[in-house]
Amino acid sequence: MDKKLQNNVAIVTGAAKGIGLAIAERLARDGARLVLADLDEGGLKEASSHLNKEFGAEVASHAGDLSHQSTAEKTINAVPKMRAQAYGRIINLGADSVRNGLWDHAAYNAAKGGVHGLTTGMAREFARDGITVNTVAPCAVNTPQMVAITKSNPALAAKFVSVIPMGRPAEMEEVASMVSYLASAEASFVTGQVISVNGGSTML
Ligand SMILES: NC(=O)c1ccc[n+]([C@@H]2O[C@H](COP(=O)([O-])OP(=O)(O)OC[C@H]3O[C@@H](n4cnc5c(N)ncnc54)[C@H](O)[C@@H]3O)[C@@H](O)[C@H]2O)c1
User: Fold this and answer.
1) Distance, CA of 117 to CA of 39 (rounded, Å)
2) Given 46, 122, 178, 196, which residue has the most CB atoms within 10 angstroms?
3) How far apart are CA 23 and CA 17, in angstroms?
4) Beta carbon of 34 within 6 Å of any ligand 1 atom
């Protein structure tokens, strides 16, 4: 695989498991040095040693609650550095359910709509600083949690999949692949976008 992020540092939040871990794996394969952040200290240790062993990645990690401003400022405060070097890529995780109004997702969609709005606001703010800001918005993803729901409540899992024309959830790697592209230098003119990775669940 092309080591297109060889000279980059990537901060990945929520990296102890699920989609965050899959993103960290993909960016490690792309050659990035990693800074991982998560609430789950044990999970973070496991993820760090896995990424180092499997991909030879250089990994630093910070355990803490990123909803606390002081923790976020200590661990993931990269924008001033990005501005100073006139280069940066910010990729948020939103949700395709904001667009199709999935069942039982009203509160979740309200929060994710905020992420989408933050994306357009920040993209405009930093557009002249060489910093792009985008959101990847997945439909249901085949995380360990989704696998568990498919076993414990197949009807519910089928309901969420029923809105996806391709008839299956996204694989975590398919979400990570879009993050990898947006994190690369070649995505230089893509900013302020909410890009769905959704098997056609919403179109346009
Ligand atoms: N799983 C899906 O089907 C799906 C679909 C659309 C969007 N998403 C979005 O993708 C992202 C990842 O989803 P996932 O299913 O992999 O999640 P997950 O619950 O499996 O993992 C989330 C990780 O974030 C960490 N975390 C949670 N709150 C934190 C905090 N305050 N500070 C630091 N770390 C914290 C958790 O410890 C965990 O390791 C989320 O933003 C989710 O909303 C997921």
Assistant:
1) 25
2) 196
3) 10
4) no
**Residues 181-192 as b or e (16 or more Cβ within 10 Å = b):** bbbeeebeeebe
* Residue 111, both tokens: 């929060």
For residue 71, give the ligand 1 atom closest to its CA.
Answer: 32
Return the bridge partners of 38, or none: 63
Residue 180 Cα distances to 22, 28, 136, 155, 188, angstroms: 11, 10, 11, 33, 13
Per-residue model confidence as pLDDT tens digits over 166-190: 999 999 999 999 999 999 999 999 9
Which string of b and e fits 65-93 if b means at least 16 CB within 10 Å? Answer: eeeeeebeeebbebbeebeeeeebbbbbb
Amino acid at residue number 67: S
The pLDDT value given to residue 92: 98
Alpha helices in 17-103, H assignment, sequence order: 18-29, 41-55, 69-75, 79-85, 97-100
Length of the chain: 204
Give pLDDT, residue 64: 96
Cα dist from 147 to 55, 67, 75, 157, 201, whole Å? 25, 27, 31, 9, 19
Model confidence pLDDT, tens digit, residues 21-42 = 999 999 999 999 999 999 999 9
- pLDDT value at residue 75: 82
Q: Which atom of ligand 1 is nearest to the CA of 18?
A: 16
Establish whether residue 146 lines the binding site of ligand 1, counting it when its CB lies within 6 angstroms of any ligand atom.
yes
